[in-house]
Amino acid sequence: MTVRTRPLPALAELPRPARGTAERAAVLAAAGAMVFQPILRPAGPGNSSPVDLFTAATIVFVALWAATSGRKLGAPYLLSFGLMIVAGGIAGLAGPLPRTSLLEVFQDLVLIAWAVALYNIARRPGVLGMLTATFAYSSIVWATVLVVASLAHITPLEGISAAEGNRLLFTLGDPNYASAYWVVSLLVVFAAKRPRHWAARWFGYAMLVWAIVLSESNGGVLELGIGLGFLALVASYRRRGLVGALALAVSLAAVAGLGLRLVPFSQVQTWALQSGQSYLVNSLGRSNGSSSQRALLIQESMGLYHADGVLGSGPRTTKQLLIDRNYPYAKEAHDDYLAALTERGVAGAAGMVLLVLVAAWRASRALRAPPAAGFAAEVARPAGLVAALLAMAVAGTYYQVLHFRFVWILLVFVAVLASRPDADQPAPGRGSR
């Protein structure tokens, strides 16, 4: 099923960003941001990282390009995320920890500015395809570096920390952040179909799966399963229609249900704990404890909401308030949807619902876009990007992924795929320096 619209202008016939222009500099900065996505260490003030040099450069060059060329900038997700930012600002000023909250609001503003910059530069002819390919190639290189480091026991590259035991974090600083990055990268490789040769591409898949295993993250395995399951359903729908997709979904559910009936999950957890294998012990073996801790954290977060009212307690205040008020399990919210309510209040929750709806609408348009036309001509398999976005949406129920930089890359790429190319784009080089 495809969207029936007016004929799309052919991107190949439109002028590419010219050398020596602010537009070209913005493209290069955005490509640098794709390459250095996992380079989050050493961390700087305000949760900044080396990759943010390219983030800031992209914003600056796109602003310069727009100012000198008179180009109007599109702003996807501005209404929904803007509502969350305003709600967070109000909650922060009225809450008990305004300094912490306003720092988070500042980071929100940087994120939305970067999303606007990336969206507009990615809509230039040839740029979306270049950025997705750059993301795919660079992630394979980083995963290979991590695998080699693990085999050679190069500790600085493994990213081992005392708090996380044997889990390899590379330069990502957190096992859940690391596993999410590798999962998204694998799905971007699928979407971009890069490397072009199948053998090199499957080598990339192998390295990325190996990197996921090294993170010892249950969440990463779940996200990968969701992404691959979604791609299977899309493929079944396109080959056999709705009935075929439903039949596959029912079959998968039946197999999973039968498997759990024959081998209860509690038995698998016990077996993993007693296996002596660090990966099994730290992943499946600890899953029961993780589930009970998350249930307690949800209960405590709702306690904060009832205490602080409908405005919320302020962004990123959950952990500190749980400590200050002597709750037994003090952690960050670890749930984007719950945090939107408890930290940003009712208005923040409304913004989150709107953000999910807008992203889902854009994802549906990206899936139904005519293949090989418009921006879909630059990405071989747009369903891969939608699968990655869906996996992150689910991850948001047990971790706060909304501030992951690569989640906003996915949101922007899907928004570009759902949009129409501009037939009247001003030629680069005409006053765009």
Structural write-up:
With 433 residues, the chain is mostly helical. The protein is built from 16 helices and no strands. α4 runs parallel beside α16 and α14 (336-368) runs antiparallel to α15. It starts with 21 loop residues before the first helix and ends in a 16-residue tail after the last helix. The model is unreliable at 426-433 (pLDDT under 50).
List the helices and strands and how they pair.
Layout: H1 22-35, H2 52-69, H3 78-94, H4 98-122, H5 127-152, H6 155-158, H7 175-192, H8 198-215, H9 218-262, H10 265-273, H11 278-282, H12 287-308, H13 318-324, H14 336-368, H15 382-395, H16 405-417
Helix pairs in contact: 1-2, 1-5, 2-4, 3-4, 3-14, 4-16, 5-7, 5-8, 7-8, 7-9, 7-15, 9-15, 12-14, 14-15, 14-16, 15-16
Distance N terminus to C terminus? 42 Å
Secondary-structure content class: mainly alpha
Query: Taking Cα atoms only, what radius of gyration do you get, to the nearest Å?
Result: 22 Å
pLDDT averaged over residues: 90
pLDDT < 50 runs, ≥5 residues = 426-433
Q: What's the shape?
A: globular
Order of helices and strands: HHHHHHHHHHHHHHHH
Largest sheet: none
Number of alpha- plus pi-helical segments: 16
Helix content: 55-70%
Beta content: under 5%
How many β-strand stretches? 0
Key features of this structure:
433 residues, mainly alpha
Task: Briefly summarize what is shown.
It contains 16 helices and no strands. The protein is mainly alpha-helical.
